[in-house]
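explain this:

___
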Amino acid sequence: MRRSRRFVLSATTAGGELVSLRPLRRGDRAEFIALRTRSADWLRPWDPTVPPGGQPRRDIASDFRGYVRALDAEARSGRGLSLVIVVDGAIVGMVAASGIVEGALRSASIGYWVGHEVAGRGIAPTAVALLADHLMDPHGRALHRIQLEIRLDNAPSLAVAAKLGLREEGVKRAYLHIDGQWRDHRTFAVVAEELGAGGLLERLSHQQHPSRARHTE
């Protein structure tokens, strides 16, 4: 499903900050790499790594155009959707749906990261809710299930799952290779029957502050 360069999802946090999601662009190179560099130590404990014998990951700094092309190709194929998180005109992180499956399953996993300077401001849960609601929109992809997999010791991400009221489904043993080792992850999920018409954004607003979402394309 091809996304235009103008595709945007947006909503307001409880603190009044406008959070927007859009595709990564080739012109974002300097800003994106600078953010990742500033936040390297903050993100390292939670970043995926390559297990022994695996194919090396793409060096984003040296092949940023290739990275953008790969994200675009994934979106066109319908297998994934990765969007940068923008606040006050600046890129502050990324949220991504991976493993999108339609047919009888109709599910996806969502992961995200934000820079250390914006952590704790409600930006991450708002971004996750925005993307989840977009994917579960009955007039769009109409996915039935969204899940998050979170390391047992990742307190900030566990707080995101709690704020969104996601249902815990248990622990997956040695589920992902993170920070150099296979790590156990707790799984949190929501299915369409558990949500009202307002989706996760409405659920989040009930716990924080009313927010209105906009979708433009």
The mean pLDDT is 89. The helical segments are 29-38, 40-43, 64-77, 123-136, 155-163, 199-207.
